[in-house]
């Protein structure tokens, strides 16, 4: 019996697999639902289950494709809320692409740390030094200066992280812009900060590089300074650039959520 079951299973595996059509299954109760009611039911599914409907049968596949906008536009808009503009904009503009495809591709894109020139140059980046850079550089940095001022005004506020968390809107930081010509603008729409004034005349150039300290990856190099690693912020699809001394964030407001990066130093020395 076991041998016959194995032979039957093997013979079935050799048969070409075909997508069933539930409409042809006369004893299938769900086929009795009219398309409008079926689509209404699908709207209550989570997005993963909703995506699976397209592979159930040929009839459902046709129905999903014919009602792509109804089923997936709202899902896309909900997912894109409060996400970084540069991460979402390419998919908003992809009018030739089905909404279901936009949904899945934007999810995949949000996990990709290979930043493009367009994404890098889209907006100004917040910039600050890490605590590991030392007091000399912190004295040039409005981020650290605003923390010290808040500590003076609120002596019981706690650690640096607690101050930033409690008074985030009062924390300031420097702004930098990566330009498409491979240079960096040292200040953006504001008076030059102390560091920019001190570096006046210094030409800062950036480029992509595929290794750091002999380790392969995707990095950004500014002049001859240590390369910047690239990561994403899952909640906002934003970007973080960092090494052992500095942090950049886009959108800029993410900087007040990056206090923990002051402890992320040791691995950048290796």
Mean pLDDT: 85
**Count the strands?**
8
What integer value in Å does the Rg equal?
Answer: 26 Å
How many individual helices?
Answer: 13
Shape: elongated
Order of helices and strands: HHHHHHHHEHHHEEHEEEEEH
How would you portray this structure in words?
With 270 residues, this protein is α+β, with helices and mostly antiparallel strands. Helices cover 39% and strands 16% of the residues. It contains 13 helices and eight strands. The protein has an eight-stranded antiparallel beta sheet with strand order 3-2-1-8-7-6-5-4, covered by helices on one side. Helix 5 (68-80) packs parallel to helix 7 and helix 6 (85-92) packs antiparallel against helix 7 (99-109). It is elongated and about 75 Å long. 23% of the residues are buried.
Summarize the structure.
With 270 residues, the protein is α+β, with helices and mostly antiparallel strands. The chain has helices spanning 2-14, 35-42, 47-52, 58-66, 68-80, 85-92, 99-109, 117-120, 135-138, 142-153, 160-166, 194-198, 266-269; strands at 125-129, 174-178, 184-185, 206-212, 215-222, 228-233, 238-242, 246-250.
Could you give the topology of this structure?
Blueprint: H1 2-14, H2 35-42, H3 47-52, H4 58-66, H5 68-80, H6 85-92, H7 99-109, H8 117-120, E1 125-129, H9 135-138, H10 142-153, H11 160-166, E2 174-178, E3 184-185, H12 194-198, E4 206-212, E5 215-222, E6 228-233, E7 238-242, E8 246-250, H13 266-269
Antiparallel strand pairs: 1-2, 1-8, 2-3, 4-5, 5-6, 6-7, 7-8
Helix pairs in contact: 5-7, 6-7
């Amino acid at each position: 019996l076991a041998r016959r079951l194995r032979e039957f299973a093997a013979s079935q595996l050799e048969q070409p697999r075909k997508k069933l059509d539930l409409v042809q299954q006369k004893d299938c109760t769900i086929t009795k639902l009219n398309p409008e009611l079926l689509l209404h039911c699908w709207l209550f599914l989570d997005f993963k289950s909703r995506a699976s409907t397209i592979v159930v049968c040929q009839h459902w596949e046709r129905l999903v494709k014919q009602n792509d906008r109804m089923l997936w536009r709202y899902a896309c808009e909900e997912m894109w809320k409060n996400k970084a503009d540069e991460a979402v904009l390419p998919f908003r503009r992809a009018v030739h692409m089905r909404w279901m495809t936009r949904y899945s591709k934007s999810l995949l894109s949000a996990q990709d740390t290979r930043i493009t020139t367009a994404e890098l140059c889209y907006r100004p980046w917040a910039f600050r030094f890490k605590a590991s850079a030392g007091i000399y550089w912190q004295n040039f940095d409005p981020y650290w200066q605003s923390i010290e001022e808040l500590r003076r005004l609120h002596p019981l506020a706690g650690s640096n992280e607690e101050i930033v968390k409690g008074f985030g809107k009062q924390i300031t930081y420097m702004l930098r812009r990566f330009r498409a010509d491979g240079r960096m603008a040292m200040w953006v729409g504001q008076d030059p900060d102390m560091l920019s004034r001190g570096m006046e005349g210094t030409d800062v150039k950036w480029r992509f590089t595929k290794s750091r300290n002999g380790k392969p990856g995707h990095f950004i190099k500014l002049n001859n300074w240590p390369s910047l690693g690239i990561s994403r912020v899952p909640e906002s699809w934003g970007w973080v650039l960092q090494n052992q001394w500095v942090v950049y964030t886009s959108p800029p407001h993410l900087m007040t959520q990056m206090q923990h990066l002051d402890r992320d130093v040791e691995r950048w020395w290796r």
